[in-house]
Amino acid sequence: MLNTLIRACAHSNDQKERAITLFHAMLSEGSVLPDKHTFPFVLKACAYLFAISEGTQVHPHVLKHGLGGDVYINNSLIHFYASCGCLEYAKDVFENMPERSVVSWNAMIDAFVQSGDYDDALRMFIEMQRLFEPDGYTLQSVIGACAGLGALSLGMWAHAYVLRKCDPNVGSDVLVNNSLVDMYCKCGSLGIARQVFARMRKPDVNSWNSIILGFAMHGQGEAAFEYFNCMVNEKVMPNSVTFVGVLSACNHRGLVGEGQKYFDMMITEYKIRPVLEHYGCLVDLHARAGLIEEALDIVSNMPMKPDAAIWRSLLDACCKMNAGVELSEGVARQIIELEGDDCSGVYVLLSRVYASAARWNEVGLVRKLMTNRGVKKEPGCSTMEIDGIIHEFFAGDVSHPQTKEIYNFLDVIEERLQFVGYVPDFSRADTVDKLDSGKQYSLRLHSERLAIAFGLLNLKPGVPIRILKNLRVCSDCHNVTKLISRIFNVEIIVRDRVRFHHFVNGSCSCMDYW
């Protein structure tokens, strides 16, 4: 009877805390002992509530009652630890299991995906295939890993696996198809994402959200608005995530009026209370459009405290718009107060603000402060996939097996750029007090330049170069990539920290607004 009550609370929307309370009462009274059915329900509630303290206290009781080898309980422990961000604990449980099921492998693969360890997720998937046939849940996680890596060919392989080897019900499963839509969007293949979406029998709100967010990150605002209208016409109620997608679409196109319209519509028509993500989109939308005072007004009138991401978008806008040193300093202080010294990008942006104002003493002080506090600039990293292999490049990298060929080809690219009149933009060079020749050399070694050279050397003509970058593309690399796409007649698709850039024949899909 207690198990039935605990299960009901664990599965409810608003009574999950009572599942933990009932479990404590069971232990305190001692008249009824927990069994193998009790623990999975309690751990489910702990996972949903991110109740790390309570869940880690449940684990010893599992061992105390001699249930440490139970596969169902261990699966629940893996899920609990992964949900609470304790990946190492989840791995320990998995590795010490005397018996594993498909669910055990699925839980562990998903744990890696949720923590961003996509390579480990795929390695575990390969290992799993020696023992079990993957199911729909497995493929969802694998497709999610491919999305995280931007690995299109691996994602297409997973899609083909679903269609050829899985039960037909898996191929039509809405969750699997949502994963596919998300993966194709994040791998830069919007056309296939649209095809997958169009073939879904009954897309749910998450399906619509995935395709709208996909259009937004590719800068296709009109398509995002069109799909939003279709969603409403299909009587699917938009939710909070839907409006994050629509507002992001406005943001990437600089549509301030449209963004304000959808923000107001969310509140008045759909009675959705704005959260930090919505305000973040609205602030960034105004700031990037040069309306910094309006953006600051939004921050001042927000019903919650702005986070570091909002202040960072303001600082980035101040840097680009030359909004003034004093304002930039004030914004930077807000970020440092929130994040401490774990915010190297703030120091870099502030350094550029001082450099733009020719305040070279402050530039030196910022760099000295970074050194004294042990703050290191986050290194630029670009990855690309060729024939199922992920290749990784850091700025100035010399570790790749083809380093010699890559650097020789960079010289060829440089000559061709000079021939068409390329002039470097030093505003994003690593050190503002270098001589121009030193700045230019540091720019040409940015990670995406190395990846582009590698792609030109190794991909067949007509195959797009697809690059995933951990930082926002700098203005000089943006200009250079446009020129390379025209000079070498190649399509280059770059997914940076913020959005996608499709470079074709000397122009970019962002229309130089990013």
Automatic annotation (TrEMBL):
<dbReference type="InterPro" id="IPR002885">
    <property type="entry name" value="PPR_rpt"/>
</dbReference>
<feature type="repeat" description="PPR">
    <location>
        <begin position="204"/>
        <end position="238"/>
    </location>
</feature>
<feature type="repeat" description="PPR">
    <location>
        <begin position="101"/>
        <end position="131"/>
    </location>
</feature>
<dbReference type="Pfam" id="PF20430">
    <property type="entry name" value="Eplus_motif"/>
</dbReference>
<feature type="domain" description="DYW">
    <location>
        <begin position="421"/>
        <end position="514"/>
    </location>
</feature>
<dbReference type="InterPro" id="IPR046848">
    <property type="entry name" value="E_motif"/>
</dbReference>
<dbReference type="Pfam" id="PF01535">
    <property type="entry name" value="PPR"/>
</dbReference>
<dbReference type="Pfam" id="PF20431">
    <property type="entry name" value="E_motif"/>
</dbReference>
<dbReference type="InterPro" id="IPR011990">
    <property type="entry name" value="TPR-like_helical_dom_sf"/>
</dbReference>
<dbReference type="InterPro" id="IPR032867">
    <property type="entry name" value="DYW_dom"/>
</dbReference>
<feature type="repeat" description="PPR">
    <location>
        <begin position="173"/>
        <end position="203"/>
    </location>
</feature>
<comment type="similarity">
    <text>Belongs to the PPR family. PCMP-H subfamily.</text>
</comment>
<keyword id="KW-0677">Repeat</keyword>
<dbReference type="Pfam" id="PF14432">
    <property type="entry name" value="DYW_deaminase"/>
</dbReference>
<dbReference type="InterPro" id="IPR046849">
    <property type="entry name" value="E2_motif"/>
</dbReference>
<dbReference type="Pfam" id="PF13041">
    <property type="entry name" value="PPR_2"/>
</dbReference>
<protein>
    <recommendedName>
        <fullName>DYW domain-containing protein</fullName>
    </recommendedName>
</protein>
<dbReference type="InterPro" id="IPR046960">
    <property type="entry name" value="PPR_At4g14850-like_plant"/>
</dbReference>
